[in-house]
Amino acid sequence: MSFRAALIQQTLDKGRIQEHQAEMVDLEDHFLDDSGGDAPVDIAVHYSGINYKDGLALAGKPGVARTSPLIPGIDLVGEVTASADPAFTRGDEVVLTGGGIGESAHGGLAQRARVSGQHLVKLPAGLTARQAAAIGTAGFTAMLSVLALQRGGVRPEAGAVVVTGSAGGVGSVAIALLAKLGYQVSAVTGRADTQGEYLRRLGASDLLDRAEFAEPGAPLQKRRWAGGVDSAGSATLANILSQTEDGGTVTSCGLAQGHDLPTTVMPFILRGVTLAGINSVTAPQALREEAWRRLATDLPLELLDEMTQEIALDGVFEQAEQILAGQVRGRTVVNLGADLERLRSRSGAAPGWGSVCGVSHPRFSR
Ligand SMILES: NC(=O)c1ccc[n+]([C@@H]2O[C@H](COP(=O)([O-])OP(=O)(O)OC[C@H]3O[C@@H](n4cnc5c(N)ncnc54)[C@H](OP(=O)(O)O)[C@@H]3O)[C@@H](O)[C@H]2O)c1
C-alpha cells in the first residue's frame, strides 16, 4: 500500500543545507515504520496546514528540517487507525501541533502519519477536524499568548492590547480571540490597504502601519498598551515594550521582522513590564489541553472560517512561496483527502520496510 506525501531530501554539512529537494511522492506504508518512538500512534491524516515554518522547510531555508528524508508539516488532524499508546484507541479524532513533527520527525503533509502520543490531543468537542487544522500551530500559539496575557493580569479594562503580524496566522487568531474576550485590539499591519476591512471584521478597533514600529526608538516611550502579542521581534517588539504601561505583559512568539531585540532594561526595571516567551512546539500536555479547550469555546468559528483557505496537497509548494513572500492572509489548511477505508482495512497488516517511489512534481531543487 502507498500513500501520498510531500518529501524533503537534503544533504547537511555541520547543520548547513548543501542540497535540497522537495517534491510530491508516493511512499510505501512501511516508510513510517521507525517513526513514533516506543508507543507509536498511526493516524489517517485528514488535514494539515501551512505555517511560516512549513514554508521555510519546503523552500530549503535553514532551521526547520533537521533530518533527511523528512515528511514536512508541523500540524496534523486525523483519525487514529492503530495505537501502541494506551491513551489512544482506533477511531479517536486527534490533533497534533509541533512536538517536533515536520522538523525532526515525519510530519503532517501526508495522508498517513505515525507519531508519538506525547503531544497528541483528542479533538475538543465543538471543533471539526478542518477547524482544528485551521487553528493549527498559529492559532494554538495565539491562544498560548492570550493565556500568558491573562496570567500576567492583563484585563480588558486595563487598556488596549497591540497585535503585530496582524494579517498573518498568529495575528489573525489573536485578534479574533482578544476581541471576543472583550479587549480593545490595535492591529499593526503592513497591509492596511488590502486587509484593513478583514482585520476590522476580526475585531481590530485600530489599524497601525507596521512601518511606525520598524525602526529602533527611545528606551521609554509614551504609554499606549496594557499588553501585546508580538510575532515580529526586532525593533517592532522593542518599541512595543517601550510603549507598554506599568505592569503590562507582552508576549513574543515570532521573528517576522528579525530575531534580534534592540531594547534596554528600562521597560522592565522602571515600568515592571513582563516579556513572556511563547514556544508552542514544546508546550507541556496540560497546557495543550487547556489551550485547545479554550480555543473551542473562545474563538468565534465564523471568523475562523473567514480567515481560512483550503488547498490540496499538490498546492503546498506554491503556498510555501506565498507565505514566505508575506502574501498569505490568515490560515491555510491542506485537505489530504485520506482514503480512510483503505487505511482502516490495512490496520493489523504485517509491517515491512519500503522505499520512496513514484516521484512527481519536483520543486525547490538546488
Ligand atoms: N514560538 C512559536 O511557537 C511559534 C508558533 C507559530 C509561529 N511562530 C512564528 O511567529 C511568526 C508568525 O507566524 P505566522 O504563522 O503567523 O506567519 P504568517 O502567517 O506568515 O504571518 C506573519 C505576518 O507577519 C507580518 N510581517 C511580515 N514581515 C514583517 C516585517 N518585516 N515586520 C513586521 N511584520 C511583518 C505580516 O503581517 P501584516 O501583513 O499584517 O503586516 C505577516 O502576515 C513567524 O516568525 C513564526 O515562525 C512561532
TrEMBL record:
Its EC number is 1.3.1.-. Keywords: Oxidoreductase. Signal peptide: none annotated. It comes from the Bacteria. GO terms for molecular function: oxidoreductase activity. It holds the Pfam family ADH_N. This is Acrylyl-CoA reductase (NADPH). Residues 15-334 form the Enoyl reductase (ER) domain. The keyword Protease does not apply. NCBIfam families: oxido_YhdH.
